[in-house]
């Protein structure tokens, strides 16, 4: 009887927890969607995207060779 009671209790707990879990998930998803789509957050996303693009452009300009002579010189140095 102990094992059957335990199994029944676990099954009931799982079903009730799954329902509550799904509802809580939906609630969190709804709130997080509102936050993500808000104007202040999207303004921050735009600034971060611009900063990342500027950093990428700067790094690319700094580390990419300008012509074939620089490529050969860099190869000879190794």
Explain what this protein looks like in three dimensions.
Helices cover 90% and strands 0% of the residues. The protein contains 3 helices and no strands. With 78 residues, it is mostly helical. It has 2 domains: 1-37; 39-78. The longest helix has 35 residues, at 2-36. This is Protoporphyrinogen oxidase. It comes from Peptidiphaga gingivicola.
> Could you tell me the mean pLDDT?
79
Q: What is the helix tally? A: 3
Structural class: mainly alpha
Rounded to the nearest angstrom, the distance between the terminal CA atoms is 77 Å
Helix content: over 70%
Q: How can the largest sheet be summarized? A: none
Rounded to the nearest angstrom, the radius of gyration is 28 Å
In percent terms, what proportion of residues is strand? under 5%
Count the beta strands: 0
Are there runs of 5+ residues with pLDDT below 50, and where? none
How many structural domains in the coordinates? Answer: 2
Oligomer: single chain
User: Looking at the structure, what is the overall shape?
Assistant: elongated
Order of helices and strands: HHH
Protein name: Protoporphyrinogen oxidase
Organism: Peptidiphaga gingivicola
Annotate the secondary structure layout:
Elements: H1 2-36, H2 39-63, H3 68-77
Task: Describe the structure in brief.
The protein is mainly alpha-helical and 78 residues long.
Features:
Protoporphyrinogen oxidase, 3 helices, single chain, 78 residues, 2 domains, mainly alpha, elongated, 90% helix
